[in-house]
Amino acid sequence: MFQDKISQNSSNRNAHEIDYKIFGEEMQFVEIELDPQEGVVAEAGTFMMMDDNIKMNTILGDGSNQDTGLLGKIFSAGKRILTGESLFMTVFTNDGFGKKQISFASPYPGKIIPIDLTEFGGKFICQKDAFLCAAKGVSIGIEFSKKLGRGLFGGEGFIMQKMEGDGLGFIHAGGTMAKKVLQPGEILKVDTGCIVGFTQDIAYDIEFVGGIKNTVFGGEGMFFASLRGPGTVYIQSLPFSRLAGRVLSMAPRSGSGTRGEGGVLGGLGDLLDGDNRF
User: Fold this and answer.
1) Residue 144 is part of which domain span?
2) Torsion of Cα atoms, 120 then 123 then 125 then 126, to 10°
3) What is the pTM of this model?
4) 100 in a domain, yes or no?
């Protein structure tokens, strides 16, 4: 059964009302049900499958500000380059009769999280590659960090993404997702790469780990994120950067076979099995 639409008077809404259903455990996808003329906007590379009579249209930006003129659209879309994303996004609209389904898949193992912007004051901030898709009418923009330290050492740089509006958006968290609701003044300290997103009232800063041994030998980096409530924070157990680093560390070296899994004995194992040649 599809999740109910957001309970709000549709005459006061800017974003389209959409129903959805999430499938899977480790490699999830979200199936969105569109009424006639309803649409959803998505990042390139997230599309999985769709019914007939759903029209696909590539546009500048997210399509939420169609009255700003060409220059306004180019400026709005151009800001997305700063997050490493494309100028263009894709809108999928139900041009047929009756309800139609379209699905979007997560890019790597983890969880898809529905974000109802009406529950978070119309704005949600997330890391640059967390956004998956959203109801047409939701604005997908960028959020600049106002603090130099956070921008230089925060892992996400000066820029994060933000969703604004009164509709549904979907973000992706790697591994297992943890949701933390912080009370006023309550502080949560997190690895910078493990942050998925947070509500607009969260105060986000970075802190130095401290201590020579912790910095040099701790293996957890020099900085961690400090998140102060009130607000809601989503944390991921497996950031893509960490997953990619592990995969690269196990990749075969040039001129050798597959690398052994034992960290200390891996090199010795290569010598014993004859892979290394002098």
Assistant:
1) 10-246
2) 80
3) 0.75
4) yes
Q: What does the pLDDT look like over 30-69, one tens digit per residue?
A: 999 999 999 999 988 889 999 999 999 988 766 665 555 5
Question: Per the structure block, which two tokens stand in for 124?
Answer: 């949600």
pLDDT at res. 117? 95
Separation CA 34–CA 28 (nearest Å): 20
Q: How many CB atoms lie within 10 A of CB 135?
A: 27
Paired sense of beta strands 195-199 and 123-126, if any: antiparallel
Any idea what the CATH number is for the domain that residue 149 is in?
3.60.160.10
User: For 95-140, how does the pLDDT look when each residue is reduced to its tens digit (9 = 90+)?
Assistant: 998 999 999 998 888 999 999 999 999 999 998 788 999 999 898 8
In the block, tokens 């041009």 appear at 95
Cα–Cα distance, 103 to 30 (Å, whole number): 5
Whether 232 is covered by a domain: the verdict is yes
Residue 2 included in any domain: no
Residue 5 belongs to some domain of the structure: no
Whether the pLDDT of residue 81 is over 80: the answer is no
User: 3-state DSSP call for residue 10?
Assistant: helix
| Total domains in the fold of the chain | 1
Q: In which element (H, E) is residue 161 found?
A: strand 159-164
3-state secondary structure of 54: strand
Distance (Å, whole) CA 152 – CA 250: 29
Contact between 161 and 141 under an 8 Å Cβ cutoff? The reply is yes
Provide the token pair at 256: 């050798």
Q: Is the per-residue pLDDT at 75 higher than 70?
A: no
pLDDT at 153 (0 to 100): 45
CA distances from 255 to 124, 260, 262, 278 (A): 47, 15, 19, 11
